[in-house]
Amino acid sequence: MPRTVFSTSRTAEFLDRQALQSQTGRSHDRFGDVVIKELLDNALDAAESARVAPEIGLTVSSADGVARVCVSDNGPGIPAAVIERILDFTRNVSDKESLRSPTRGMQGNAFKTLLGIPYALSVTEPVVIEARGVRHEIALSTDPSSELAICHAKTSSTRTTGTAVTVPLPADRVTAAKAAGWLRKFALVNPHARFVDHGQAAGGEGAGIYEPTAPEGWRKPWPTDPTSAHHYDKAAMEKLVFAHIREHRQGGADLTVRAFTGTFAGLSGSAKAKKVAEQLPQITHLSGFEEKREQVPVLLAAMKEHSKPPTPNYLGKVPRDHYIHVLDQAFGVEELWFARKQLIDGAGIPWSIEVTVARTKRPGDVAFAVNYSATFGDPLARTRLAGDKISEYGALSFLDQADAAPVPANQSLRAAIVHLVCPVPQFTDKGKTTLVVPREVADACAQTLAAASRVLLKDKRSKQSADRREMRAAIRELDAEAATRAEPKVTLKDAVFAVIREAIAQARGAEELSFSSHTLFYKIRPLALKLLPPGSKVTAPYVEQTLLPMWERANGPIRGLYREPRGTLHHPHDPDGTKDVRLGTREVREYQPPQWTYNKILVIEKTGLWPPVRESGIADRYDMAVITNEGYSTEACRDLLARMPAGEVQIFVLHDADPAGYNIARTLGEATARMPDHRIKVIDLGLSVDDAIAKGLEAEPDTRDAALPARILPHLTPTARAWFTGKPIARKPDGKPSRWRYQRVELNAFSSPELIAYIEEGLARHHATGKVIPPDSWLSVNAEGSLRHRVAAAVGAAIDAMIPKDRIIDEILDGLDTDQITAISSTDVAQLHTHRPALSWADAVPILVGQRLSDRADLPALARQAVTNYQATERQ
User: Fold this and answer.
1) In whole angstroms, what is the distance from residue 521 CA to residue 515 CA?
2) Which residues, in sequence order, are CB contacts of 784 under 8 Å at separation 6+?
3) Closest CA to 312 of 425, 220, 403, 379
4) How far apart are CA 714 and CA 465, in angstroms?
5) Staple partner for 644: which of 379, 410, 637, 649, CB 3.0–4.6 Å?
6) Whole-angstrom distance, CA of residue 244 vs CA of residue 253
């Protein structure tokens, strides 16, 4: 009986979590963001296409572990026929495919993904679409053969205006607060629209009703506006023309060249369309380009010749007052600065860049948008922005350096919005967030960011100067106090420096072996004590962490010296820890970061927190390496972080809410006495005192015997300073405090799930970059290697099945003098050890077998002959 050949549709990929992550460019824990953004984009487009002022409603309701996200609009209502086309998963349904226009359609993910996401997240409720008096309940699933199954039920609905779409999600994927944040971001860049968050509409600070403020006659590019031929190059025009041809093949109209030309800006008049068509006398309809593809550039040149290129003004402008209106409603504005720059890049493409920065009364946020649509993150994250006073990768880092982003140091009392408009945005990621921009546009972005943040940067640097003056004064006071004390004849530093060369020689030995800093300390101590007054103490921490680095800065690195590992680098996607790197000087020196494995590093000051972090999978979800250590980071750890490519790896730190924790975060990125040239960008996730209070964590009393580190003072909020200052409980003879009792909170005050949630909140707040995705060329090479491995495995399995290897091996062994070859004694092994003492007995045995075998037989020749004999027998 002949076998049936089965075919499997790829449409089920819309239900697979991994495939959906690839399509949306977001990890599955961010699918809530994908749903909200897509629904808001679609709602605004629907109203704008009907040329009505958009009225957008958002509701998030939760029950029984399911959150239902509903977005409504006042557009014409999605027709039932369009819904049926959407449910055809073999075709892409879009009215903007291949078009180049500064509209949201250049960014949104397919509506089909919204239908598949609930199933991929194990939610069985249907997606509900209500429009034009009909309620559509749509649930996707797979049948036993993994084929897509669609359940589409229709009932009557009272909604006759606009469309309402409800998508069910697991309750942990979306919250009312997250939805409110998305609505605020969209409201910021859409002054013509009214947004209502039905969960917050009752009132209160930042209540979720954003009224339109656009003046009469305000305009932006609408979804139905004709596109300009000047936005296209040869490849883009070919893609558009052949998209029309594909639609014609599937039953659509075959447009004439004149009709097609008339859909472009500046070419709607029949006279101009006729002139364009006259330059293509042999082609009357678009289908004619199938056989004359080389004529597409002729068509494009003619269209550009007979139309004017658009200026940046047509991109629209969000009024400054509108930004003030929304930011004030959300966060309370004390002061606000705004800058806008418009330009045409070298390829003739217009750009508009708007930046608004505010000092706020309540903790704020940084929002990003492209083409009037809020994005998942910083669109300039991989762009070097070189201003006069700041040079950083990414707008967020630029704002952070200018004190224009909300961080603990400014009590998060900042808010900002960066909005870019361009008809041809080129994204590097499938989530349509990170842009590739020409150099001249990057420079314009840097200038706009600098202009909007200039005042805050000036204030920040003035404060830093004042803090430095205060610190220098404190140091002078301490120096003066120390100078009044009786100085010993020989200081500990003098004694150590006097004997260090002799101690190095002892530690290294005649064999010139490497030695640890602790070994060197044990050689230094007895020698130094001979030079010091009786009763003097020589402690390991001071010698190893202060005096040795000081001596090396003056005399150069000590040859052979290494610092013992203290801390571990854990890699993502390494469940067994086989790739762990202990953080010692030798290990870090030899470490080569693996390519395309992680783009974030989280430094945690407690090794005991690694098990819950590992078990939670957060390192894998964020492609994030994790460093765990106890207390202050070693030089090896900071050297490792400094080797990471600037702008390519984000570095985060997590610490206790106490003076040491704050100082750990500071020293991780700033210069110190031990490492005066060290400086990297480190993002402090906390734990801050304010966060600890907000989370309701239990504080504990502690004592300290030293003054607060001067360099953490600028980073302390009033509450943190009050906690850490505490109250004096002991005083010196002169009456000055010598010991204080203060309050602190350890990271261990979190339960394990609370700790993971806190880390994720911090990563989201600081706009952690997305997943690591290598360039297409790298993916192709990797895919080729994977394919080769699979083919090799299949060939090996086929050979194993065709040739009885065990039988052939036995035949070869029968022909050898195995007793002589394997008669290896302890004397034989001992004799080999006299020539090669580093060998173990287990390594010695195969070497001895190989020596005896080479004297008696040509093993490869025997193997080939045995296989040949077997094949000859099989053929007979």
Assistant:
1) 10
2) none
3) 220
4) 11
5) 649
6) 8
Q: What are the backbone angles phi and psi of residue 832, rounded to the nearest 5°?
A: -65, -35
HSE-CB of 464 using CA atoms within 13 angstroms: 10
CA dist., res. 752 & res. 763, Å (int): 17
Q: How far apart are CA 662 and CA 372, in angstroms?
A: 39
CB–CB of 664/688 below 8 Å? Answer: no
Distance CA 33, CA 433 (A): 13
3-state secondary structure 515-548: EEHHHHHHHHHHHHHCCCCCCCCCCHHHHHHHHH
How many residues are recorded in the chain? Answer: 876
Instruction: Provide the 10 A C-beta neighbour count for residue 546.
Output: 16
HSE, side-chain direction, 13 A CA sphere, residue 329: 23
> End-to-end distance of the chain based on CA atoms, in angstroms?
30
Question: Which residue, among 71, 35, 45, has the nearest Cα to 371 in the 3D structure?
Answer: 45
Q: Which two tokens stand for residue 761?
A: 């909140």
Q: How far apart are CA 723 and CA 461, in angstroms?
A: 26
Give me the average pLDDT of each 10-residue run along the chain (876 residues).
41 78 83 93 92 94 92 94 84 60 57 89 94 94 79 93 95 88 95 88 60 92 89 90 88 90 89 90 91 93 92 94 95 95 93 96 94 92 88 90 88 94 82 83 95 93 82 76 61 89 86 84 91 87 84 82 80 88 78 85 87 90 88 64 72 90 80 49 88 88 85 85 88 84 90 90 86 81 82 82 83 82 85 83 85 73 82 75
77: left (phi over 0), alpha (psi -120 to 50) or beta: left
The tokens for 807 are 């039988």
Which residues, 6+ apart, have CB-to-CB distance to 90 below 8 Å?
9, 11
H-helix segments, 700-742:
718-725
**DSSP β-bridge partners for residue 180:** none
Residues 428-454: pLDDT tens digits?
A: 766 667 888 999 999 999 999 999 999
CA angle 752, 757, 760 (to 5 degrees): 130
For the CA atoms of 353, 359, 362, 365, the dihedral, rounded to the nearest 10 degrees, stands at 30
The full DSSP string for 6-57 is P---GGGGGG-HHHHHHHHSS-GGGHHHHHHHHHHHHHHHHHHHTTS--EEE
3-state SS, 340-403, equals: EEEEECCCCCEEEEEEEEEEECCCCCEEEEECCEECCCCCCCCCEEECCCCEEECHHHHHHHCC
Helix, strand, coil percentages (3-state) for the chain, rounded to 5, are 45, 15, 35
Quick one: 693 exposed, middle or buried, by C-beta within 10 A (0-12, 13-18, 19+)?
middle
Coil, strand or helix at 2: coil
The residues, any chain, with a CB within 8 Å of residue 404's CB and separated by 6 or more, are 357, 414, 416, 452, 453, 456, 457
Cα–Cα distance, 516 to 564 (Å, whole number): 6
- The dihedral built from the CA positions of residue 69, 74, 80 and 86, taken in this order, carries a sign that is negative
Region of 362 on the Ramachandran plot (φ > 0 left; ψ -120 to 50 alpha; else beta): beta
Write out the two tokens for 536: 């003097």
* Closest-CA residue to 606 (of 652, 649, 661, 680): 661
| Cα of 182 vs its chain's centroid, Å | 19
